[in-house]
Design goal:
Distance between the termini of chain B: 38 Å
Mean pLDDT of chain A: 89
Structural class of chain B: alpha/beta
Order of helices and strands of chain A: HHHHHHHHHH
Radius of gyration of chain B: 22 Å
Mean pLDDT of chain B: 90
Structural class of chain A: mainly alpha
Strand content of chain B: 15-25%
Largest interface: A-B, 47 and 56 residues
Number of strands of chain A: 0
Number of domains of chain A: 1
Oligomer: heterodimer
Helix content of chain B: 25-40%
Strand content of chain A: under 5%
Shape of chain B: elongated
Number of helices of chain A: 10
Helix content of chain A: over 70%
Low-confidence stretches of chain A: 1-13
Chain lengths: 267, 299
């Protein structure tokens, strides 16, 4: 307790510690998506909402509309909200709950942490969508059996692929908004602005401004994405338009947001 | 071992940390002392790479923090006990730390025991923890990688007296085994009992640093006598600074032996003679940080 304390040589021999593998960071980040009550409920809500949407179709849809497409689109609506929210919270909780103080001292390489979060979020989406699709398929079988009609499987593999892609894109948009805002509330609000406010504005602009009409397909992200939900496959030009609008509304802000995260102060 | 070299952080025109340099050697507890807003936390965040410095740098265990391959195994960090996810259990917080560092998860149980969190408490969610419990959990997170260096920001906040005693013994033992401990506080008494070395910061600048013994010695001597004024005059004419404080004692920069000699030669009886010690250090602390304190210097 006094200044007389003798300075002893370090008792422990310095050991060489290995850098954390990317797999370890992935494991930790994935665990963090499930280990809180809200996180667990959010994950469970994927199944719960799928079951609710499926039940609604079975109960209230007219018999002749009991097709797999009906189930798929009914389930798709809650998915477009839940998946982005999962992605948003996986990023913003580091700031809103201030766990970043610990995370970024354990893993000083913020880029690797953010990449691990992105991989986990996309991974959750890639697993969740088939689970939701399976719930819908079950609903189609059960629903048509109750109604006494034959199940109609009118969604092709290519269309299913497009739906998965559209949902993953939405999820990455959520991730991007989380990175850019670093605030749960702001990111959720921004997501609804993105999906609900900007599209009608864009349509309005296209209907009043001749010059914008031709450009809309190239720069309107939601417009370009909506084709993924339409029947059939996209043309080369439609893919290119999806590419340019994704670059503008997703890749660019994500790059800026990531650069800000790398050099920002974690408090 | 922690080496801080000319760390500076500016926010626009405001300089939060101004050319701060010091060393926290192994085997010693280094106290980082300063009033609120002096720049302690900013300095510590810069040391562990959470805040990019405007200039200067810090080496921990001989490397920049960001270059440590597995920082948690070399430096235990507790910057803010409240910065835990409210929805996680204490046990889960430690499990995540163990997994992040790649240490076996059986360490979780060991550490819970070491910081005296019970099995039942460890399964509660952090939102139900008191600040003291969060501090214990934060200490456990810092210790779980068995590091050689500890960086703790205000670790005694929220602890009860028994908890403060426990923390003091833990840090003492840690340093005695060769570890490096840097802890900050805005409370002098809290740090005085455990630190070997002190670094005092005010307004972003280091205003004093050295061993506690040196700083205590510099704090001078307190003497009492029925003839206070005469004693003060005798000391002044002997070339020392001396003043009568409001409580009727003479404070001087001369050491105790000298004061005794001066009193003997002047034939002044002494009723009390001691080094200024804690009280002196406190006065020094208030004085050193006077220009930076919100309240200004008291008396």
């Amino acid at each position: 307790m006094t200044a007389l304390t003798v300075t002893r040589p370090a008792a422990q021999v310095a050991t060489v510690h290995k850098r954390a593998s990317f797999g370890r960071i992935l494991g930790v980040e994935l665990r963090k998506m499930f280990d809180t009550r809200s996180g667990a409920w959010l994950m469970a809500s994927i199944v719960i909402l799928s079951v609710l949407a499926t039940s609604a179709v079975v109960l209230w849809a007219p018999e002749d509309e009991l097709t797999y497409e009906m189930f798929a689109s009914a389930i798709g609506i809650p998915m477009t909200v839940v998946l982005p929210v999962i992605a948003i919270l996986s990023v913003t909780s580091e700031w809103s709950q201030r766990t970043g103080l610990t995370t970024f001292t354990h893993f000083p390489s913020r880029g690797r942490v953010m990449l691990a979060k992105a991989v986990c979020a996309v991974g959750v989406g890639v697993v969740a969508i088939p689970v939701a699709a399976a719930v819908g398929a079950l609903g189609n079988v059960v629903g048509t059996a109750i109604a006494g009609t034959d199940p109609v499987w009118n969604v092709s593999a290519a269309e299913l692929g497009n739906i998965v892609l559209a949902n993953v894109l939405g999820l990455i948009v959520g991730f991007m908004l989380g990175v850019v805002t670093r605030s749960s509330a702001a990111a959720v609000v921004a997501y609804f602005v993105y999906t609900l406010v900007l599209p009608p504005l864009s349509s309005l602009l296209a209907s009043t401004q001749e010059g914008f009409r031709d450009a809309q397909a190239w720069v309107d992200f939601t417009f370009a994405q909506s084709r993924l939900f339409e029947d059939g496959t996209l043309t080369g030009q439609e893919w290119a338009q999806l590419g340019t609008s994704t670059l503008l509304w997703l890749v660019l802000p994500l790059a800026v947001g990531t650069a800000l995260v790398m050099r920002s102060e974690v408090k | 071992m922690i080496t801080v070299e000319s760390l500076t952080k500016k926010y626009g025109g405001f300089t939060a940390v101004d050319d701060v340099s010091f060393t926290a050697p192994p085997g010693r507890v280094t106290g980082f002392l300063g009033p609120n807003g002096a720049g302690k936390s900013t300095t510590m965040r810069m040391m562990v790479g959470l805040t990019p410095p405007t200039s200067g740098g810090a080496l921990v265990a001989g490397r920049r923090f960001a270059d440590l391959p597995n920082p948690g195994r070399e430096v235990g960090v507790l910057l803010d006990a409240s910065a835990q996810h409210a929805g996680r259990t204490g046990r889960e917080v430690l499990t995540l730390a163990a997994r992040s560092m790649g240490v076996p998860t059986r360490r979780v149980g060991e550490l819970l025991e070491r910081v005296s969190l019970t099995e039942k408490e460890s399964r509660r969610r952090v939102r139900h923890y008191s600040l003291g419990m969060r501090q214990r959990l934060g200490i456990a997170t810092a210790l779980i990688g068995d590091p050689q260096v500890l960086v703790l920001d205000e670790p005694a906040n929220g602890l009860d007296p028994a908890g403060i005693r426990w923390m003091r013994d833990l840090l003492r033992g840690y340093a005695d085994e060769g570890g490096t401990v840097l802890l900050s506080s805005h409370l002098l008494h809290e740090i005085e009992v455990v630190a070997d070395d002190l670094v005092v910061i005010g307004n972003g600048r280091i205003v004093a640093s050295g061993t506690k013994a040196e700083l205590l010695a510099a704090a001078g001597t307190v003497a009492r006598s029925p003839r206070t004024e005469e004693l003060a005059r005798a000391l002044t004419s002997a070339g020392h600074e001396a003043a009568v404080s409001p409580d009727g004692a003479v404070r001087t920069d001369a050491d105790a032996a000298l004061v005794g000699m001066v009193a003997l030669h002047a034939g002044i009886p002494l009723t009390e003679l001691k080094t200024a010690d804690g009280a002196g250090l406190e006065e020094m602390f208030l004085e050193l940080t006077a220009s930076t304190q919100r309240e200004g210097v008291a008396a």
